[in-house]
Amino acid sequence: MHRFLWVFAIVAACGNPSATPDAAVDAVPVDAPVTPVFRNPVNLPDDQLAQQALAILAPTSPAQECNSCHGMTRQRISYWRALSDTAMTNCITDLSLATQESAQKTIDCIRAMPTVPTSDFTVKNLGVYATAVRLPWFKFAFWRAYGDAGDAQYTAFQDAVAMPKTGDAPQLTQEQFDIVAEWFARGVPMLDDTLPTDPAPSMCTDGISSDVAAHVSAMATTGWRAVNRQNMMAMYGCGTETDPKNCLQAIPLASSTAFGATWDLPGHGTWRVLKDETYVTSYWTRSSPDGRFVGQGVANVPGSYILDLQRDATVTINTQYDPAFFPDNSGFAFQGSGQSGGNNNVCAISVLTSNPTNITMTEAACASAGTLGLYEHVGKALGGGDYFGIDSQFESDDGGKSPTLRDPAADFTAMGYVDFTPMIFNGTKFVPKARVRVDTPFEGDSSLSPSAKLVMTRVAGPGSKQLGYVLRKVVATPSGSTYTISAPEIARYCLSGGKPGFSYDERWIAFHHYVTNTNADAQALGFTGTSDPGFTPYKTQGAANIYLMDLRTGVPVRITNMAPGQYALFPHFRSDGWIYAQVRDTVADHEYTIASDAALLAE
Fold it and tell me: Measuring CA to CA, which residue among 216, 206, 217 is closest to residue 81?
C-alpha cells in the first residue's frame, strides 16, 4: 500500500534516492546566451502521467521516505494545483526571460511583497514549481536579472523556497520535474482515481485553480445569462428596458419601509420588496429565470405556493418544499407531491404560464423523476444538451423561526455523494434517465450551476462545523442510455454559510450566513466585539445576512444589513443578474420576498 507523504508544509517533493540533482544546474555558464528550458512537454496518457507524477512525489519504498513529511491527499494536491496555476498566471509569465526587466519581474513576483525588492521570497507564490528552483531555468533567471551579482541572490532564493527543504532529501531531476509539471499543467487529471479517499478533513486552505477563471470567461458569452438574453427572454419588471439595472424600478424600495430601513449597504446595491407575506415559508425559496414565478414551501397551510408576480397571484401547489427552475425557463421541480397526484415532481413551465389558481401535479405536463431526492438543484447542458437534477447528503436549513445562532451543521460523512439525474424533455414532459452517483466524501448540500458544468458543496469539519465550500467541475460524457460523470475539485473557499446559489453567468455565488456569537461576526457588523452593547440583541434574537462572492477571487462581500431578529435567507439569481431572497422577520412577524441589484453593480 502506498504511503502518501510529502516534504514541507507548503510544497515539497521526494524523488528516487539513486537520482542526483541535475548536473546541468552547475554547468550553466553565467553568460549563457540561450535561456534553458523551463520544462519539456511529456507525451503520456493522463492515467500514466498521474501514476508517474505521484510515484515521484510520493514514493512507495520506506527507504525513500523524506524527513518531516506531510500526508498527501486529494485536497492538498488540489490546493497545490491552485497555487501552481496562480504562479503561472501571475509570476512565470515569460519563459524566455528575454530581458532583464522580465527576469526581475518574475523574481520579485515570488516575494511576499512583490513591490518591496528586499522582502522575503515565499514558496506559496511558486506552488509545485518550487521543486524546480535548483534546475537551470531559475539560475539563469537570476543571472539575467542581476548579472554577476546573481549568484548570491540565487543562493538566498534557493535557501528560502527550493523544495524539498531538507538537505539530505533527493532533489528532482529535470526529467522528473517535467513529469510533475506536465501533470499540474494539465490540471492534475485522474487525481481522484489514483489517490485513495482523503481522511476526514480538519482544516481548510483556500485555493482557486485556473479552471475557474477559464470557466467564468467562457460563460460570459456562452452561459445561460447570455443565451437567455440572445433569446430575448422577457424579464419580470423590465418592460422595454434592455439594461437590467433599470428593471424593477416600480417595485418599492426596502429603505422606504420601517422594517427594511437598515437593509442596504452603501455601494452594494439596493433592496426592493417584491412581496409582503403573512404566511410562514418552509425551507427555501427559488424563482424562475425570468423572475416572474417564485416558489416557496409553506409551513402553516397544506401544500405550497408559487407566486406569480406578473399577475400578483398566489398559486397553490400540491407539494411540500424545495422548488427549483430549469435555466431555460422550460420547467420546474418541486418536492413532496402525493396528496392527490402520486409522486410527480417535475413539470413543464406551461403548467404555470396557463395562469392556474391551483396546481395538482396531475397535469399532463407533470411527471415523476423518482430518483431526484430532496434539496435538489437543477440545470441544463448548453447547446441543446440534456437537463440534470442533483441531490446529495444535506442538512435541513429552515432557520429564523426561532433564534438561530449558527450556520447549518455539516454532518456529512465519508459516504458523501452527489447523485445526478439526467432528463430529456419529450415535448410534453420531462423523462428521467438512469441516475449516476459521484462520490464526494465529507461533502454535502450540493448546488448545481445553471449549465450543469459546476457543483458546489459544503465541507464537514470537526464538531460537525463547516470548513468551507468546494467547487467541482462536472465532466459528463454520454454512455449508453445515461452518462459517466466525474467531478474533480477546482477550487476551495474557506467560508461558512448556507447552501449557495449560482448566477446565470456563473461568475457569482450568493449565500446566507447566520450571525454567530463571535468577535468576527460582531466586528463585521461594525461593533467592537461580542461585549459591545449594540451587539447584545443579536446574541438573543439572531439574524442572517446575504453575501455575494466572485468565484474567481473567493472574496465574500456582505450585501445586507439585517437588524436583530431579521433573517435574510436562500439567495438565488434570476437570469439577468438580479438576486432574489427571502426575509423572515420575527420582529414584524412577516416574511418578504426581496430583490437586489448588488451583482449588477459589481460587474
Answer: 206
